[in-house]
């Protein structure tokens, strides 16, 4: 089968930063599905893992985590899916990725593809939607189906126009929250408003003065999707006493937790690979949330965040997509489809 990956960690402009090879098709065991890949999307984690470093791989390292495809074979312990099922998922960072014609993935982190979406539209969603869902509902403790309680509560989503932000805005609105997103450009501001953001502020400026112009001095929840180090002091300033902050962006310098002490505020990380990486007892929750997301999509309550599609799936086009994501200016998601 065709697979695209790397041996050396090089700048994306280098021809060998991503290369194509023919390798053996894997065989499913235990609860694995063998999925024939139809479409994949590119995330910041793809770029981060591929980024230049002093290391070489002995075997082709296959990147990629978002995928949509069809189940070809199932392992002997599978009970959720069968051959022929159309699926979408974000996979595991500890296993070979989705830049290949076929991929093995544990069925407990796989969802049934929404029937109303194309393969490309579905492939744009899993990693970012899982991250948004877990961040909002598992880490921040917001209840999706309790609009009455959430009506008077606010959430600040830092970096609203990216893939995770695009999903988080929609989910937070479904939960009944007042959504305040950050965006810094005209096109990104327009995008977050289209998705349902009630208010928009600029993350390159101090948060409090901008919030006060809209009648808010503090917010109940903060979901940080952009530069935790840069926004740490501002987040501590505007979080309400006993409020909650969740970030998906690792810090590069120590965070002063004393900023949150007097407010008894909560800080928590979200990393969507945790359940698959550690084979947690509740690993199947990712299957369940992707199933719930599919239902929301079928009901017209959630839309794909796909913004651009490239075809076919090959090393040249993957390098182009990586370049797009590396700019840090992406709105929504870029997807590659068809080998």
UniProtKB/TrEMBL annotation:
Homology family: Belongs to the zinc-containing alcohol dehydrogenase family. Quinone oxidoreductase subfamily.
Matches recorded under CDD domains: AL_MDR
Residue ranges of every copy of the Enoyl reductase (ER) domain listed in the record: 17-336
Keywords tagged on the record: Metal-binding, Oxidoreductase, Zinc
Protein source organism: Metabacillus halosaccharovorans
Residues spanning the signal sequence: none
SUPFAM superfamilies membership: GroES-like, NAD(P)-binding Rossmann-fold domains
Protein name, UniProt field: Zinc-type alcohol dehydrogenase-like protein
Keyword hit for Zinc: yes
Pfam families from the UniProt entry: ADH_N, ADH_zinc_N_2
Highest taxon of the lineage: Bacteria
Transmembrane segments: none
InterPro entries, A to Z: ADH-like_N, ADH_Zn_typ-1, ER, GroES-like_sf, Lipid_raft_assoc_Zn_ADH, NAD(P)-bd_dom_sf, Quin_OxRdtase/zeta-crystal_CS
């Amino acid at each position: 089968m065709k697979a695209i990956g790397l041996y050396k960690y090089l700048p994306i402009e280098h021809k060998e930063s991503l290369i194509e090879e023919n390798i053996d098709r894997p065989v499913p065991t235990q609860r694995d599905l063998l999925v024939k890949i139809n479409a994949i999307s590119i995330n910041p984690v793809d770029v981060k893992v591929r980024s230049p470093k002093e290391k070489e791989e002995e075997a082709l390292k296959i990147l990629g985590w978002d995928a949509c495809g069809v189940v070809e074979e199932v392992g002997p312990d599978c009970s959720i899916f069968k051959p022929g099922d159309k699926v979408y998922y974000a996979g595991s960072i500890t296993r070979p990725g989705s830049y290949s014609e076929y991929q093995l993935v544990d069925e407990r982190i796989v969802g049934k593809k929404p029937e109303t979406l194309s393969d490309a539209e579905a492939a744009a969603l899993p990693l970012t939607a899982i991250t948004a869902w877990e961040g909002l509902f598992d880490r921040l403790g917001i209840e999706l189906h309790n609009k009455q309680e959430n009506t008077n509560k606010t959430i600040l989503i830092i970096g609203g126009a990216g893939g995770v932000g695009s999903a988080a805005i929609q989910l937070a609105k479904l939960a009944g929250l007042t959504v305040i997103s950050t965006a810094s450009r005209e096109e990104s501001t327009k995008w977050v408003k289209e998705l349902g953001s009630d208010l928009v502020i600029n993350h390159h400026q101090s948060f409090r003065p901008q919030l006060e112009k809209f009648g808010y001095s503090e917010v109940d929840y903060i979901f940080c999707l952009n530069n935790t180090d840069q926004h740490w002091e501002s987040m501590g300033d505007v979080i309400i006493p006993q409020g909650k902050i969740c970030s998906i962006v690792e810090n590069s310098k120590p965070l002063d937790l004393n900023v949150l002490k007097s407010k008894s505020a909560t800080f928590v990380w979200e990393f969507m690979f945790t359940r698959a990486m550690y084979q947690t007892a509740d690993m199947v929750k990712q299957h369940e949330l992707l199933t719930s997301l599919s239902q929301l999509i079928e009901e017209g309550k959630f839309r794909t965040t796909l913004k651009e599609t490239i075809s076919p799936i090959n090393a040249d086009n993957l390098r182009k997509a990586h370049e797009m994501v590396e700019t840090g200016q992406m709105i929504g998601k870029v997807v590659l489809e068809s080998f």
